[in-house]
Amino acid sequence: MAGFRSLARQVRDPRCDLALRRYSLRKCLERFAPYGHRATWDHLCSRAGFGPEDRSPDPARLVAALEELEEARSVWLAYEVEFAERRRKEKHDGLRRPGSVDDWHRLTWGGFGVAWCDDPRVHPDGPLAEVLRRLISALEREPGSVCPVCDGDRLVWKYDLDHEPSTGPVCTDCGILVPRPVLTPDALADARRGRLLMSA
């Protein structure tokens, strides 16, 4: 099975036919898809300017989509290295029990569904790398009461999500399943009660 980098080389290779190049970009999403496969594909297509069903997109647009995905992957891989180093240090210092961020991180190892979007047509508009930077920053500071990606204050608790965890607070502005560790207990309780959060 081809890895992300070899698939990326196929996307860039002008000797490959266009169908293979498009297919290889889709296959990259099996290795790294922050919003989930379908939502990440929809995001990349809209940002690069070709349709999700376009079977012969401009090769330059395919490469632009790949470059955005690669930048985001670099951001996430750097975070995973830092995360693993922190856990090693904590274990060395006697802290064996992982915290809530660690529990969340275990479910997203490799970057799949880091900012899960259950509706593939509703996802953040900005570059993937910027979305991940905002999410990582939120994971590294005290919990807040708004979406860490878009600062939206309309969080609602959704059930039967096509993801693990299958329930949780979803931002109605940008569509992500907000990681529970980045929200205060009050914000989580408000989302569970179905109240829209209002920023102070």
UniProtKB/TrEMBL annotation:
What name appears for this protein in its UniProt entry?
A: Uncharacterized protein
Species, as recorded: Streptomyces hyderabadensis
Top-level taxon in the UniProt lineage: Bacteria
